[in-house]
Amino acid sequence: MESESNNQQKQDPYIALRFPEFRSFLGMRFFLTFAYQIQAVVIGWYVYQLTQDPLSLGLIGLAEAIPAIGIALYGGYVADKSEKTILLKWILTAMFSCSAVLYLITIPSVSTGLAATQIVWIIYGMIFLIGIARGFIGPATFSLMAMIIPRDHYPNSSTWNSAGWQVASIAGPATGGLLYAYAGIQATFLIILIFLAISFCCIFFIKRKPPQFIPKENIIKSLTEGIKFVFNSRMMLGAMSLDLFSVFFGGAVALIPVVASEVLKVDAEEFGMMRAAPALGAVLTMLFMARHSPMSKPWRNLLLAVTGFGVSIICYGLSTSFYLTLFFLFLEGVFDSVSVVIRSTIMQLLTPDQMRGRVSAVNSMFIGSSNEIGAFESGLTAKLMGTVPAIVFGGSMTLVVVSLTYLKTKKLLPLSVKEIHAPEISTSNSSH
C-alpha cells in the first residue's frame, strides 16, 4: 500500500506546486524574469531612438555580458557557501536600485539637462551593475530550488521551474513592446519596479536554509571542481557549447528595432507585435511540449531545434513583408523554446546538489550571457555589413555550428537522457 501511495505521488503532475516555499520561489523567479525581460526590450528601443546606431544595441549586451561572465565563477562559489535567501535579498535590492535610476533618467525634468550621449552612458552603467547581479542570481536560485523541494519530486519541480522561467522570458519581451507602444516608457518602468518589488516580497515566504557546501580548500580549488565536472560531462558540455555559439551568431533578434525602423518602416505598435511574435510561438510550443516531451531523444531533437532556429533567422533577415517577418519570428520562438527546455533539463538532471552553484556559474558563462554576446555580435556586424547581411550571416553561421556539432556528436543522437546521464553522474561522483 505504501508503494502504491508513493507511485501516486510521483505521478501527480502538480506535486511540486503543493509545497508553499516552491510556489514562493516560482513567484520570485517569475516576476524577476518578467520585469527583467520587459526592461531589456524597453532599453533597446529607447537607446536606439537616442542614437540611431545599431552598434549601440550590441553595446547594451556587452555592458551586461562582461560583468556577468567575469564574476560568474565567484558568484557560484558564494552561492554554494551562503544562505541563499539573504543573498537573493541583496541581489534584488541592487537590481531594483538600478532600475529606479533608469526610470528617473526617462523623466523629462531629470533628463532635460542631460545630452543624449550622457543618458546612454548612464544606461550602460546601470546595465553593467545589473550584469554583476546576474553573476550571483543564477547560481543562487539554481541551488536554492533543490533545498525547498524533496529530492524525489525534483524532476517535477524542474519542469515547473523551467516552464515558469520560459513563460516569463517569452511573455516579457512581448509585454515590454506593447507597454512601450501604448503606455510610454515612464509608465513601463513603473510597472517594472512594481514587479521587482513583488519578486522581492516572495523571498520572505521562504525559510532560511543552511549552506550545503562548506569550503575546506581555497577558492581556486573549489571553482576548479565545478569546471572539471562540466567538462567531464559530454552531454552537458555539448549542450552549453552549442547554445553559446549558435546564439552568438543567431542573436539577430536584438536587431528588431533596426528592422522595424529601417527595413519594414513601421512604428512602435508594429514593433510591439514583432516582439510578441517569438513569444507567441514559444508559448504555443510549451503547451504542446507539456503533452509531447522532446526528451525521448534529446540530442537529436536539440540539433533539429537549433537548425530550425538558424533557418528562421535567415528567413527573417531576408523578409521585406511585415507579416512574413512576424511568421519567421514566430518560428524562431518555436524552435528556441524547444532547445531551451532540452538544455535546461539536461543541466538540472546531471548536476549533484553540492555543486549546483558552481555548475550553474559555469552554465552562466556559456549560456547566461550568450544572448547579450550575440546581441553585440549582431550590432557589430550590422554596423560593418548592414542590417540584412548581418542577420543572414548570423543565421548561416548558426547552421554551420549545428553541422559541426552533428559531425562530432553522432553517437549521442539515438540515446535517451537516462542512457547518458547515469554513467556520467556515477563517474563524477567517484572522482570526488
Unreliable spans:
1-10, 421-432
Count of distinct structural domains: 1
Give the oligomeric state.
single chain
Termini Cα gap: 38 Å
Fraction in helix: over 70%
| SSE topology string | HHHHHHHHHHHHHHHHHH
* Gross morphology: globular
Task: Return the CATH architecture.
Answer: Up-down Bundle
Label this structure with key terms.
disordered N terminus; 432 residues; Growth Hormone, Chain: A; globular; 18 helices; mainly alpha; disordered C terminus
Helices and strands in order:
Layout: H1 2-11, H2 20-51, H3 54-81, H4 84-104, H5 108-111, H6 116-145, H7 154-182, H8 185-202, H9 219-231, H10 234-249, H11 256-263, H12 268-291, H13 298-318, H14 322-350, H15 356-368, H16 370-385, H17 387-408, H18 417-431
Walkthrough of the structure:
The protein contains 18 helices and no strands. The two termini are 38 Å apart. The longest helix has 32 residues. It has 432 residues and is an all-alpha fold. 53% of the residues are buried.
Quick gist of this model?
The protein is mainly alpha-helical and about 425 residues long.
